[in-house]
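Quick check before the chapter quiz. The format below is the same one you will see on the exam, so make sure you can read both the input and the output lines.
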Amino acid sequence: MLNPKNLSPKQLSAFTSLVLSVPISLGFWFVTLNWMIVLGSFIITISGSYLLFQFVLEWFIYRKIKLIYKFIYQTKANKREETYYKYILPQKSIDEVREDVEKWAEQRKAEIELLKTNEAYRKEFLQNLSHEFKTPIFAIQGYVDTLLSGAIDNPEVNRRFLENAAKNVDRMVNLAEDLDEISRLESGEQPLNKGPFVIQDLIKEIYETLSIKTSAKNIKTSIKKGCEAPVTVYADKEKIRQVINNLLENATKYGKQDGSIVSSIYKTDGRLVLIEFSDDGIGIGEDHLPRIFERFYRTDRGRSRDVGGTGLGLAICKHIIEAHEQTMHVRSKLDVGTTIGFTLDERTSIN
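Here is the expected output.
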């Protein structure tokens, strides 16, 4: 059955003209009983009404619709858009035009929501950045003011105050370096020097580097049983060293006394290698998991600052892994522990 809703303007004009012409022609037939007059009236009526309806639709209704389209795109029409307005748009039904406008409205709504989210993130980021810089600045200012007020002549406090001020300067330097590194990673200014290497060897090296920190809390480090066989990956070794070092440092900071850290390496599909690090520490609340890779995001701001760090480590890790066109993931439960990992390209051999 013919559905007038799906007709183009020309089809709608023809359909309406036909509906109008038939009863008029039948009226002439009953009055004159002359088929020549009936045929003439039918031709004149259908032709005239078609032109009239076409004129009304194209010059009034579709002219307004074209203005709506121009408002939607809000730019000077290029040749392609002019062709669309002139030849394609007039062939569309009102329902098709409505669908176009609704689709545009949905896209604009999604863009607005994204802008609102980005704006909220920007404000939070600037607040966090300001707080991260103000904390060491105010500490340095306090130590310097105290020294200038006379404490510099007191040998019992002047060295300690200078050492504390120096620690806060180092913290600011580390923060600036981390921000600079994230900027370079985002802009692609840090090229990756990829090459094959055995991932287990790198993990063992980092275990050895962090042995003093892990020994202080009597944390045992190991590679999971069944994952000891050498697996070669293809990546930037020094960048991956930075990622693993950061993850293991976090596992040590938030790990429990007499705890453990276990590394797991799995071949997934003959193309990728999954590397995971599990601890049995304090864990992360489920509501925090989606945001732990954000800059400066801390699940517990006070406790996080007590153990040090700039709050940018996981953000840097995520950028490095994404620069390798891979992904990171995390699983965690409070008071049970955390597992965090990433994938890398597999290489069958070092040669």
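If your answer matched, good. The longest helix spans residues 94-148.
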